[in-house]
Amino acid sequence: MQPYMKRFSVQGRRALITGASKGIGFEICRVLAEAGADIVAVARDPGGLAEVRAAVERSGRECLAIGAELESIDGPRDAAREALDHFGTIDILVNNAATTAPASLLETSVEDWDRMMAVNLRAPFLLAQEIAPKMIERKRGKIVNISSQTSVVLIPDHCAYAASKNGLNALTRAMTCEWAQYNIQCNAICPTVILTPMGERVWGQPEKGDPMKAKIPAGRFGLPVEVADTVLYLSSAASDLVNGDLLMLDGGYTAL
Asked: 214, 220, 232, 246: most buried, per Cβ within 10 A?
């Protein structure tokens, strides 16, 4: 058996991360690079992509920055193909990019519904379709989908977001059903509120955030690095028997 440092390492692996220019995605890129992976950072924001590229390169790893609009059909496909053209293979796919527009079920617009389904669910499907064939060919791969606590325990004003993330959970299990035989591990992380810019925007006011914290046994929201560290585990050999799982990263919220 390998020493534990090697089991938790991703040295020499190539990882594609969406939503990479800020928040959770930025931290995932940084942590995976520190653990030895070369990075494909996919996002819309050129400035953020330049920052994540600099952070990865400070760790001595290569970073390919790709600007992409994941709401479109061609955006995910083109990003995956550019990554494969550059590196030949992708060992780790992290579907992190997401969008939300909190509103009641009756007030959710068709446009917001379609955008959330496109970014949160269709883009991971399209990226996996492009990336997985090489994983199947090499009989090795890791796919980590960033889902949400809201996919399991509903809260008001998140109907479309919850539906998209619940669909991502089902997609994760479908990937496992079809690809586990090729030594590909596909898992989803379901975080509670994480203090990203989006998390601060939605939950930053005490009148909204405090009642939510009161439902979390740990009494706090999460940090982006805590999600990134969980991604590292699911990307490493240490998690090779973990497959098709929904890992609740929620401070005990769903244990009650």
From this structure: 232
